[in-house]
Amino acid sequence: MADAGDWRLRGQERYLRGADLYWRAYRRFGGNPEWDHDQCSFCWAKFMVEDHPDVLHEGYCTLDEYHWICSRCFDTFKDLFGWRTIPVLGSRDPEGS
Question: What confidence tier does 13 reach under pLDDT thresholds 50, 70, 90?
Answer without folding.
Answer: very high
